[in-house]
């Protein structure tokens, strides 16, 4: 297939949380589908390896080591997209943080603060810097924020995580409302349990949760990171041109019942 027929041909996309899991899968997929990708995460060595792999396969990629909680780091990543590739068309705001669920009164303030800072402030920082770059391009853009099944219902995850993922959907809908008439689409993914490093860490803490996650899915399995990445790529592409303000379930049917 020629590059001009690829899903994201000619696009420049920023991906956060790109060093592992869904973010790394999205980095590879977006590049394979024709996008130039700017990858952001805290683990610089992993980002460098991923960029080298993408470039080795003929793709275009750049990395910015940083933390989505730090507005200046996000601004650097957006600036890298514009300075290196000339624009920013799409963003997949995927960085997230979660811990094994404990009753609300047993959660310490530090865990609450970190959960909200990464999952909510991080998305806010990204939207704050990405949307002006898309508006400046004159051709609009598309943003996808990673929420969760916990953004629609209590799941047994911590109260802070559930609250943060509800907030991601709220930010998504508000931004879609604010910028829809200016050509910027903003959507969220309602992601079910996904095999990733973060999930492995949660299950290591509470092994009994694995069966809970499996039984929650109508398909009796967790998703693969690349399955979530496929949904993000579609929402970042022109093929989803009439989709904005949505919370799209990629959850094996767990919110269908």
Automatic annotation (TrEMBL):
Which SUPFAM superfamilies does the record cross-reference, listed alphabetically?
NAD(P)-binding Rossmann-fold domains (SSF51735)
Q: Which PANTHER family does the record cross-reference, listed alphabetically?
A: DEHYDROGENASES, SHORT CHAIN (PTHR24321), ESTRADIOL 17-BETA-DEHYDROGENASE 8-RELATED (PTHR24321:SF8)
Pfam families cross-referenced by the UniProt entry = adh_short_C2
CDD domains given in the database record = SDR_c
Family stated for the protein in its record: Belongs to the short-chain dehydrogenases/reductases (SDR) family.
Where is each Ketoreductase domain found? 11-196
Q: What is this protein's name?
A: Short chain dehydrogenase
Q: Which UniProt keywords apply?
A: NAD, Oxidoreductase
A molecular-function term among this protein's GO annotations:
oxidoreductase activity
This protein's species is: Streptomyces humidus
InterPro entries from the xrefs?
A: KR_dom, NAD(P)-bd_dom_sf, Sc_DH/Rdtase_CS, SDR_fam
Q: Which SMART domains match?
A: PKS_KR
